[in-house]
Amino acid sequence: MATFLVLIPPGATSGDENARIVRDRFSWVAFVLPVIWLLWHRAWLAAALAFAVQALGAAIADHPVFGLAGLGICLATHLLVALEGPSMLVAGLERRGWAVDAVISADDRATAEEIYYTETPAAAAETRDSVSLPAAETSARRHAPMLGLVGFKEGR
């Protein structure tokens, strides 16, 4: 099963036909061709940064002592874009005013679209209202972040 994020444009309601569905997973194309993948998805700044880091890694790879470090920098760039590329696309859309409307687990994109567009707004509201809150939300006592992680209410 894969996870799909459904984003709606600014001012749109749930179930809008202009919604974008982004699959949140590792991308082999982004791993093999990270800069081209970012340019294809119109992430211009990320593509320029990835190109600069890869150029730096290639320049370092030519050095006889630091050659492996340069290859490591290039590999890290490829992995970062392949793992976080879809998240970068979602973050870019959110900066432009798009909102995440739903998170759907499905086998493929067609199934995710079917689930999203056949769900009635009344059923969605009923499901979202019946979600139980975590224990930390219902307790009057404030809890510190666990394992060094930032808590949700404290911000970043």
TrEMBL record:
The chain crosses the membrane at residues 31-53, 65-83. Keywords: Membrane, Transmembrane, Transmembrane helix. This is DUF2628 domain-containing protein. Pfam families: DUF2628 (PF10947).
